[in-house]
Structure formats: C-alpha cells, structure tokens
Write a structure and sequence with these properties.
Layout: H1 2-18, E1 22-26, H2 32-38, E2 47-51, H3 56-62, H4 67-70, H5 78-92, E3 96-103, E4 117-123, E5 128-133, H6 139-160
Parallel strand pairs: 1-2, 1-3
Antiparallel strand pairs: 3-4, 4-5
Helix pairs in contact: 1-2, 1-6
Length: 171
Amino acid sequence: MKELLTQAEKIAALLKARNQTIAVSESSSGGLISAALLAVPGASAYFAGGAVPYNRNALVKLMSVAEDRLRGQTPSSEAYAMLKAQLVRNHLSATWAVSENGVAGPTGNRYGTAPGHSCVAVSGPVERTRTVETGSTDRLANMYAFAAAALELLANALRENASGEAAPPRQ
C-alpha cells in the first residue's frame, strides 16, 4: 500500500492546488485506488466518491445508467474502462475520473480474458486509456498492479494538463 500512497500523495497535491475533484470506478482492484486516494490527509477537498461496481448489475444500479448504454461493451476492454470513467465522472460531477476493470485471477473470466489483464482509463480535461498485462495469476499482486497502473495513468494525465484547466463532464 505504501507504493500506492506515494503516488496518491502526488495526485492529491495537484488536485488540491487546482481545486479539482476525482471520482473512482474500479472492479478488480477491489477499492485499492479509492483507498490510496482516501489515505492522504485532506481527501475531502478532492475526493468526490468512488464505487466498486464488480458486475454489470452493480454498475447499472450504482451509476444509474440505462442498460442499453452498456449494450455491446466488452468488459476488460479500454472502451469499457473509458465508459466507466465517464459515467462516474458525470454521476459525481467530478473534474476527473479514473476507472479500472479486469481480471485479478487466479482464473480468467467468462469472456475468455486471462488473469493479470486489466484496462484503466482517465476521463477529464485529458482522456487516456491503458491495458495492463501482468502475466500472473496472483490475485493480490494483480490487484495492486492494476491500482498502481490506474494511479500512474491519472498522474500522467494531470501532468499533461499542466494548466489545470477543467473541461465540463461529457453527457
């Protein structure tokens, strides 16, 4: 957790300095992204909220999204990660959102995705996605690797948006 906290502290400093907020939607990282961001003192200044919608039903209910908006989306894909980031950003009216979805292991999922695969996304003034492949079946190690990748992508997006200018959430 210490490695995640180091990255989260840098992210928190940037968000606080810019008076911006972050929302989180994660699945196979099991809440580690949110936990790292919330472990930084003063999190109430920048943390809009987070959720672990572990399956489609939870995503529909927690994000108040219509089922047809999810039709055709493949879990554990960059497009799905971006959709989840956009949904949570809009739902919580945050400046930024980060999402993660994948397969922690030790086995694959019903869609044929191998363990150690995750996709992360950032939605905000800058939007980015990334696929993570650990090649491992170690569930806990994968969860931490996925959370670290999401925080790294978020930190990079924040640095890329050096002006701190916020874009309105997408509808």
